[in-house]
What does this fold into?
Amino acid sequence: MSSRTPDARAARRGFTLLECEVALIVLVLLVAGLGNLTAAHQRLLGAVDDWMAGDPTFFVARPGETAAVLGTPATLSVDPPAPPAAPPAGPLEVKVLSVEATLDPPTASAQVELTEG
Amino acid sequence: MQPRAQSGVTLVELLVASILGSFLLIMAMMAWRPASAEALSVRDRARSGAELRLAVEALLQDLGGADSALPGPDGELVIKRLQPLAERLGAWSAGDDDGIEWWLQDGKLHRQDLELNTDVILAAGLTGLLVTRDAGETHIRLEAGAGDDARSVELAWIQ
It folds into this structure.
C-alpha cells in the first residue's frame, strides 16, 4: 500500500458506478419488500374489517316445550320462524281415547285423536 | 494531503448523516401511523364483538325457557319463565314468577333474578340496551363501541 502513488490514492477516494448501482438495487429491493409487507398488512386488516362489518338482526328460535323446560337455550336464525299452521278447514272427527279425572285437586285430562273429515 | 486524514468521516459528516437518518426514521413512522390506527380500530371492534357475543349467548339461555319477554317501565328487559321451568328451578312462588330483569348500568349488562335474588354481570363495555315491543315482536338491541367502531346486534323474539 505504501508503494502506491498519490494519484492512485486520489482515484480510490469516491465510489464507482458499479457500487452505486448495487447500492441502488439493494435499496429498491428493500423498499419493494416493505411496500409488499404494508400492502399485505392492509389487505389483512381490510378482510378482518369486512368480516366484522354489519349490524345484523337475528330471530330467536325457541326450542320445543320439553327442551325449554329442561333449560335448553334458544338459538339464532337469520330467517323469521314459520307462521303457525292454518287451522283445518273441514270438520274434525274427535275420538276420545282416555279420560283421567281427580277430585282433589280438581283436575281432568283427556287424550283425544283428531282426524280431518 | 495526508492519506490517513481521508480514510474516516468527520464529525460534521456524522452529524449530518445522523440528522438525515432521523428525518427518514420519523417520516417512516409517520407513514406507518394510519396502518397502526387501523389495527387498533380492528382490535376495538373485535373487543366490542366479543362482548356482544357474550351478551347474546347469555340472553339466549334465558329466552330458551321464556314464557314472555317484554320491555319494562325503565327500558329494561323482563323475562318470565315457563311455569314448569320456574317450578323446577325453585323460582315459582305465590302463583307466579317475578321474572328476570336485564338492564344496563355503566356499560355493564346485569341479569337480576327477582325470584332467586341474584344479580350477575354478564358483559361489559356495552353502550346501549334498547328493548321495544312492536306487533307481537320484542326487539332487543345491544350496542357496543363508539364512532366508526360502533357495533350492534338485534334479536327479534316473536310471541
User: Anything to note?
Assistant: Residues 67 and 82 of chain B are 5 Å apart (CA to CA).
